[in-house]
Specification:
Strand content: 5-15%
Low-confidence stretches: 1-5, 74-93, 101-113
Number of helices: 14
Number of domains: 2
Oligomer: single chain
Helix content: 40-55%
Largest sheet: 9 strands, antiparallel
């Protein structure tokens, strides 16, 4: 069902196991705006007050929807770990005005290729319409997205609260995503810069075949262990590591994964869509509605089984062999 006013499709499971409306968090990577302009776009829609933590991070606190972060998407700068590297070269920039001036310059230079990111709080999914109004405010202010420059490998991420933590449901969702991936890639018209970047690499064919096998019925530990065996990275169009770390943090953090970048949460981290914020006819409803097609497939056992068998039959033995060889070469 589509909300006729907003255009956002209703999830087949609108509420989680706790009977609360499922929540969604949005991350938008953009260029062309200053941090204060991005913060103003939030305040215009949802109120709040802006706190500037550094040249790289601002927080819009106490809005009607929760706290939003505006940050330069460069961990080296946000964490200020660059200062330690400068110290190793005998350069200590200290604190105060000197550091502020240097960081202001670094922020402007990095902003040429590194996006500013608006990170929203998890909100009940019917509030997506309000998040979309913030998106429109950013558009009206002149935000630029993925297609504005060959250098912009910018994405839009959604953190979508899972409907259930039962292994059977997680498996159905994972299978539905793997089946829909080529369709999603075509629908999203993923920019070449993002396709060749290391951030949204497709799942290896041997993992896909393993998950789509007819007799694959894992318990939770097996589901997690298989993921960590075949594809221990967050750089996938559907990043499972935050969800799996929420379920079993110790197990996930013991694997060779990007530990400092994983934020455990009971949500699917969907990283595939472009950020087309500078296009007037684009809205958050576009990637959201594509995601809902995944959920609908996962919630339709007969159709899911039919498409599972079809996709598995198309899986190339050569591609599975190459994926296995590649993994063993670098493991």
């Amino acid at each position: 069902m589509t909300d006729s006013k907003s255009g956002f499709l209703t999830p087949p499971r609108a509420r989680g196991d706790d009977d609360q409306l499922r929540r969604v968090g949005i991350e938008l990577e953009v260029a062309g705006l200053k941090p204060e302009q991005m913060a103003a776009a939030v305040v215009e829609e949802a109120g709040g007050r802006v706190e500037r933590e550094s040249s790289f991070i601002s927080v819009v606190r106490d809005t009607e929807l929760g706290d939003f972060r505006v940050e330069l998407d460069a961990d080296l700068l946000k964490s200020r770990s660059y200062q330690q590297q400068l110290k190793e070269l005998g350069i200590d920039i200290g604190q105060g005005e000197r550091r502020e001036n240097i960081e202001s310059v670094l922020s402007k230079v990095a902003g040429l290729v590194v996006p500013l990111e608006l990170v929203g709080p998890p909100v009940p999914w019917p509030e997506l319409e309000r998040l979309d109004r913030i998106r429109k405010n950013l558009h009206d202010a002149g935000a630029r997205g993925t297609l504005s420059s060959p250098l912009y490998a910018f994405g839009m991420h959604m953190n979508i609260e899972v409907a259930s933590l039962e292994p059977d449901h997680l498996l159905a969702m994972l299978r539905a995503f793997l089946i829909c991936y080529d369709w999603l890639l075509d629908r999203s018209d993923i920019d070449l810069t993002r396709r060749v970047s290391p951030y949204i690499l497709p799942y290896p064919e041997d993992y896909l075949a393993h998950v789509l096998a007819a007799d694959y019925r894992p318990d939770m530990n097996t589901l997690i262990d298989d993921f960590l065996k075949f594809t221990p990275t967050r750089n996938r169009p559907l990043d499972l590591l935050p969800l799996l770390a929420h379920i079993d943090k110790k197990r996930v953090m013991a694997a060779p994964v990007e530990k400092n970048l994983i934020k455990p949460r009971p949500a699917w981290h969907y990283r595939l869509p472009n950020c087309l914020i500078d296009q007037a006819d684009w809205s958050l409803a576009t990637p959201w509605n594509d995601w809902i097609e995944i959920e609908r497939l996962a919630d339709d056992p007969e159709r899911l089984e039919r498409l599972r068998a079809r996709r598995l039959a198309q899986s190339s033995g050569l591609m599975r062999w190459l994926a296995e060889r590649w993994r063993k070469l670098f493991s």
